[in-house]
Amino acid sequence: MERGRRQAIVMGGSMAGLLAARVLSDHFDHVTVIERDRFPEGPEHRKGVPQGRHFHILLKRGEAALARFFPDLAPALTDGGAPVVDIGADMRIYQYGDYKVQCATEACLVFLSRPFLEWHVRQRVLSRKNVAALDQCDVGGLITNGDHTRVSGVTVQRSPGRGQETLEADLVVDATGRGSQSAAWLEGLGYPRPPETTVTVDLSYTSRVYRRTPADLPGAKAAYALPKPPHEKRFGALFPMEGQRWIATLGGWLGECAPAHEAGFLQFARGLPAPDIAAVLPRLEPLTDFVVHHFPANRWRHYERLARFPLGYLIVGDAMCSFNPVYGQGMTVSALEAQTLDDCLRERGDGDLSELSRNFFGRAAKAVAEAWLMTVTEDFRHPGVAGTRPRGSGVMNWYTGRIYEAAVYDAYVYRSFLQVLTMLRPPASLLGPRLLLRVMSGGRGGGRRPKV
Ligand SMILES: Cc1cc2nc3c(=O)[nH]c(=O)nc-3n(C[C@H](O)[C@H](O)[C@H](O)COP(=O)(O)OP(=O)(O)OC[C@H]3O[C@@H](n4cnc5c(N)ncnc54)[C@H](O)[C@@H]3O)c2cc1C
Fold first, then answer.
1. Can you give the residue range of the structural domain that contains 169?
2. By alpha-carbon position, which residue is closest to atom 4 of ligand 1?
């Protein structure tokens, strides 16, 4: 272990925190993960991760990034019953006014529930010899050296009624999610608040879990219906999960919200852009009640733009940037940030942490920017979405609109698009000459239209 890297603390034991802890365990003598919730024994929901009750897709790039740290993870997930779905061949996707062409693709994703994935990751991280879990423990703030140039630990409260304690560390990582207090804490220490970019979407999710049998959705393993703005705002997903279950999530942009009761949910489903989900839902056996989640806005806190930042402190995951979840990027971006952290620490094998935050935030911002561009550019198709528009988003929306139309007939176009959607390739790859030619000529066939 390198000099100066004795103790690391990770605040928050959800996906971003666990992945950061996994990386730090290779570079520090001891890593402590501090989590407000009790860590459950099994794949159970937690209060601190309310979004875990809604569908969670792990994109192909995220799966690859996780494989670097947990080579046995993907087989364990499928052995545990998580189905693999080729989005091109097995998912009925209706988007931008039509069904996509049906064709075999590289976009074979493992479909699972969020608690199941987190549990598998948690077991692997917390079983490492130098990683300790401090659950049911609330972080209250940072401790620093005299002139606040270095974060030297955190204050914690192990349970209500017990006094505050301090825990010291050479590096503290904030993975406390969207509600992170880092900006306020840093301001309290005399640092500027990070500039924020916000794109308001006023999105809602209403979800319910059902029993799954192979005959439920004839000819497909999953269904996803997305709107064609500006007239449509609703989306619906019927995704398989481990345990022979479906999760159905209905929702919409700009205040469209599926009611959390049987009749209203089915009525909302009948108003989706495509009929598949509404046709199936009434036949399914519910296993849970409905749950609702509101997501107000995409929000990116630009720590990479701060000229001054204390040593020994980092911010990762949703605490730095949280995306409209419809495109399923959050966990993948957290995994890419973990890779970036690993790369930064490996490059300074002498244990020097003085350049870590500058290196990490600068590089992490590149991974975030790719996902951000795709997400908010799509969001801006809805006229009521408000915030900072990425430069060129109008042209991008026009061009991706042509891609969506060509992907109704052309398997090459659709495959290329899915590589970007699953983050295997950057958005710039959509401008390759062969693809450009096919898109501009409206697609050339080469796949099957799904039977509806
Ligand atoms: C509705 C919805 C659906 C989503 N769907 C997808 C999807 O399909 N695919 C995808 O990749 N991503 C999805 N996401 C995003 C994904 O959930 C997050 O990006 C991912 O969980 C990483 O978040 P995180 O670990 O940074 O924060 P979180 O998951 O929010 O976790 C923060 C953790 O910190 C703990 N904590 C908070 N404060 C303290 C404190 N003071 N002391 C101690 N502990 C604390 C909390 O208890 C919690 O465990 C979705 C998000 C939402 C809202």
1. 7-70+117-197+300-377
2. 325
